[in-house]
Amino acid sequence: MEKINSVRGMNDLLPGRSDVWYRVESAIREVVNSYGYREIRTPLLERTELFKRSIGEQTDIVEKEMYTFDDISGDSLTLRPEATAACVRAGIEHGFLHNQHHRLWYMGPMFRRERPQKGRYRQFQQFGIEALGWSGPDIDAEIMMVGTRLWQQLGLSRLTLEINTLGDPEARGLYREALKSYLDRHRDDLDPDSQRRLDRNPLRILDSKVPQTRQILAEAPDLLSFIDGQSKDDFSLLQTILSENGIEFEVNSRLVRGLDYYTGPVFEWTTDLLGAQSAVCAGGRYDGLVLQLGGQPVPAAGFACGVERLVEVYENIAGSTVNNQPDVWVCVIGSHTMSYALKTAEKLRDTGIHTVVNCGGGAVKRQLRRADQSGAQLLVVIGDDEFTNGYATVKSLRESGDQTQVNESELANYVCCRLSEAKVTSEGDDG
To answer: Which of 153, 210, 371, 385 has the most C-beta neighbours closer than 10 Å?
Structure first.
């Protein structure tokens, strides 16, 4: 019978790598909680119109990448390609946005029919934060501080923060006309996608990755030269706050982000560790999105981060292994001792000791080999004598020495002491 493989662009996360993911996800939860962000979970499926109205019908995501279908009732539904629009939709629907302030975070699978490549899949995990109800550069700075603290928590370096501002609608309108006028003169040399966008949304061309188009853009008008008034003052204050808090950044006047709902400041963290796909985390301000989706005007800002990319950076810098090894391996000898062995293991787990029991029987030599391969520090042997007399035999798997017989009632304390001694010895060796 022919085997069934996974769908192209979908990725299995196998044991071993999942341990690394757990480390990263735990750091995410710890950092966002420390800033007062609260988790929100939205459905995988949303009405297609939500993304057309929020992301923009002329974006690559909506035009090419969404998984969209009609259900039995004729409604057009889409597997969510991102989560910001869904968070805003939930806020409007449940009435917790107007005249309120909320710090939200989310993490879960998103779907885009992109060309699969390393660290980029058609189902991907995304983490993000949304600050709803605040205007001004203070919350923008805090959002960037959240990202910076997360990188520090994970021990990550070689990430560069790039920032820009899109200004107010009037400034963007003037810049749009100047950019269009410039690109019109080079229309025939633009790539087909950029030619198509030139009349509808020329700012999207700034996001092009086509080398020939990028070369043309090098001489295009500078967005920042059109920014003035409050937008300019806010962007200047944002830079001051970041600098005074020791956060390094670069101003990139070509940065516009690939979603139509962004207004004001935008930013990306990039790295040279991921090849051509350099962005790890990105976001910005989207003050008009709540109104655009049918709610009352609410200022908002946030960012989104692809967890696959973050994990890849983490593995490149911190190494690919996370210690998820058991503390104790229980070797079971004899046909009548399994129940006692399982009971003993449960008592060890009650005290926080990570314990694996050798299930399924097997020769002692094979069990010992499994114990050694598990990475456990200690071996606990349960045989007929141990079962009959109510004790366990304990032996180190990492150091030479005699085995010790320990009464059942004293086993947990004894194992804890042995593990503490082993940890001290290991730290001393590392030093």
So the answer is: 371
| Whole-number pLDDT of residue 207 | 77
CA angle 75, 80, 83 (to 5 degrees): 130
H/E stretch holding 303: strand 300-306
| Count helices and strands in the chain by DSSP H and E runs | 15, 16
DSSP E strands in 17-168: the ranges are 38-39, 45-47, 67-70, 76-79, 102-111, 123-132, 159-165
CA 88, CA 296: separation in Å to the nearest integer? Answer: 11
If one counts the domains in the chain, the total is 2
Residues 352 and 237 occupy one common structural domain = no
Within its chain, how far is the Cα of 137 from the centroid? 24
342 with 262, same domain: the answer is no
Do the domain assignments include residue 269? yes
Domain co-membership, 153 together with 59: yes
Enclosing domain of residue 384: 328-430
Distance between CA atoms of residues 251 and 425, nearest Å: 48
51: exposed, middle or buried (Cβ count in 10 Å: 0-12, 13-18, 19+): buried
Give yes or no for residue 321 having a pLDDT over 60: no
* Domain co-membership, 261 together with 395: no
Burial 24-44 (b: 16+ CB within 10 A, else e): bbebbeebbeeeebeebebee
Q: Is the Cα torsion angle 278, 281, 287, 289 positive or negative in sign?
A: positive
Q: What's this model's pTM, rounded to 2 decimal places?
A: 0.84
Residue 319 pLDDT greater than 70, yes or no: no
pLDDT in tens, 260-296: 678 889 999 998 877 666 889 999 999 989 999 999 9
Sorted by sequence, the CB contacts under 8 Å of residue 322 that are 6+ apart come out as: 19, 20, 22, 23
Tokens of 235: 């962007």
Q: Is 123 helix (H, G, I), strand (E, B) or coil?
A: strand
In this structure, are 298 and 233 located in the same domain?
A: yes
Which among 129-143, 193-207, 329-343 has the top mean pLDDT?
Answer: 129-143
Tokens in use for 311?
């994990």
DSSP single-letter state for residue 120: B
Boundary-marking domain end, from 254, 289, 318: 318
64 falls within a domain: yes
Residues 340 and 312 occupy one common structural domain: no
pLDDT digits (tens, 9 = 90+) for 136-171: 899 999 999 999 999 999 998 889 999 999 888 888
Q: Is 284 helix (H, G, I), strand (E, B) or coil?
A: strand
Does residue 245 sit in the same domain as residue 339?
no
